[in-house]
Amino acid sequence: MRTKVDSSGRLVIPARFRRQLGIADGGGEVELIDTPDGVLLRHIGPPVPRRDARGLAVVELGRPVTNGEVVAAVTADRESRDVLPYPGRS
Fold first, then answer.
1. Neighbours of 51 (CB within 10 A)
2. Quick check: 68 and 26 in contact, CB under 8 A?
3. What is the DSSP string of the chain?
4. pTM for the predicted model, two decimal places
5. Where are the domains of the chain?
């Protein structure tokens, strides 16, 4: 796939790749890794959830995720919205 680089050196990352990296809604940070075949982009930090049509947090990584990754993403999302934990949980 081809993409554009603007005069400031910014690279346009197509939406489907941003979703796979967990940066679909803007923000986030990626690591550039030099490889013999080119440059690899890797998301830095916990998975970033997006909202589905029902408003539920969804994490798309393009790979299986661990329970710990899901819990970290849900916790980060909840904290970003100042939502209290489930009743009876701390």
1. 11
2. no
3. ----B-TT-PBPPPHHHHHHHT-TTS---EEEEEETTEEEEEE-SS---EE-TTS-EE---SS---HHHHHHHHHHHHHHTTPPPPTT--
4. 0.44
5. 15-80
Q: In angstroms, how far is CA 37 from the centroid of its own chain? A: 24
CA distance 87 to 70: 20
In whole angstroms, what is the distance from residue 12 CA to residue 68 CA?
31
Residues 18-64 pLDDT 10s: 877 767 666 677 888 999 999 888 878 766 667 788 888 776 666 78
Q: Residue 79 is which amino acid?
A: E
Rounded CA-CA distance 40/21 in Å is 11
Dist CA 19 CA 26 (whole Å): 10
**Unique residue bearing structure tokens 């994490």:** 59
Class of residue 72 by CB neighbours under 10 A (exposed 0-12, middle 13-18, buried 19+): middle
